[in-house]
Design goal:
Layout (H helix, E strand, L loop, with lengths): L3 E10 L2 E7 L7 H12 L19 E7 L7 E8 L6 E2 L5 H4 L2 H8 L8 E8 L4 E8 L23 E5 L18 E5 L9 E9 L3 E6 L11 H6 L1 H17 L12 E6 L7 E6 L10 H12 L19 E8 L2 E11 L7 E10 L1 E11 L7
Parallel strand pairs: 2-3, 4-6, 11-12, 13-14
Antiparallel strand pairs: 1-2, 1-17, 3-4, 4-5, 6-7, 7-8, 8-16, 9-10, 10-11, 12-13, 14-15, 15-16
Length: about 375
Amino acid sequence: MPQTAIPCLLMRGGTSKGPFFKATDLPADTATRDKVLLAAMGSPDPRQIDGVGGAHPLTSKVGIVAPSTRPGVDLEFLFAQLQPARDTVDTTPNCGNMLAAVVPFALETGLARPRGATTTLRVLTLNTDMACDITVQTPGGQIEYAGDARIDGAPGSAAPITINFLDTAGSVCAGLLPTGQLRDRVRVESETAAFEPFELDVTCIDNGMPLVIFKASDLGCTGTESVDQLNADSALKARIEGLRLAISLRMGLGDVRQKNYPKMTLISAPQQGGALSTRSFIPHVCHDAIGVLAAVTVGTACVLQGSVCDGLAVLPAPDAQGLTRVSVEHPTGEFSVALATEAAPAEPGGLRVTQAALLRTARALMRGEVLVPAAVWKN
């Protein structure tokens, strides 16, 4: 049987990477589409040796893009998170890194046209109905990838891509603070006696990505450990997963054993002049950096008085535009988020975040066709 060829572009978006498809080039029904994506990426297999996946959660991602017929929206984006060793395709959460590659992909494939020296398009992420305005460089009517913008976690420099999120609170959860509290005290017990019971304070927050934020010191860490050290600490990971399963019930997320959220974020005092130091589990592997929307959510927790970030976060005064620029440190550098806030005395923390903007880069890496067995999909 011949294989089925599906047009795609392999794209880097921020610090993530994966194939991008036009929605019309994939099966219409979800079950067949997921089988195609699993076959294309080579999951389930830790090395993804029989597909184009990169054997890591950050390189086991897929973008699906279509033009939008909704008023005021230019493009619709569906993000799919696959796992190397699992047969799951999760389209519940967002991914701000892959989001950075949506407009470049659309311009490369003719789904959109340039609008001058810079092109700004409104993108709706279908996973959570989150809208944002994305601005890319298009001098001479072509997408520009070369430039001086640098982001930690991606080598070299590239043209800047600005993402202005319009409404991110409660992306997956029922609201910004899914438990209704800025801080929750949690007792965690092991179902399998893998660890002794423990208690700690956490902040459960969702401003684009559901996070559980807690002090590294509460689990016996410094918060400065390397990614390899944390990934090798099986006892620590068992406690973090126990916490994730316990607190997710309070967050209204139910049983999250087979879900990629909430992400788990250890925090400590800044080490490199930023606002806060982080180590982010996504959720079972420590991130080499931090996800875009996780950084937005951590930054939001930093500006809300009463969260677990209080006493650790070091924040600058708002700039002339009224933006608070929060530098979130991570294992390979920092991620700056610009937050606009307004007073909201009736809400926990007394503030409401009205805007979140950040800088990313992206690049098209390869164009062609990904081949899947005809037994999976004979198109």
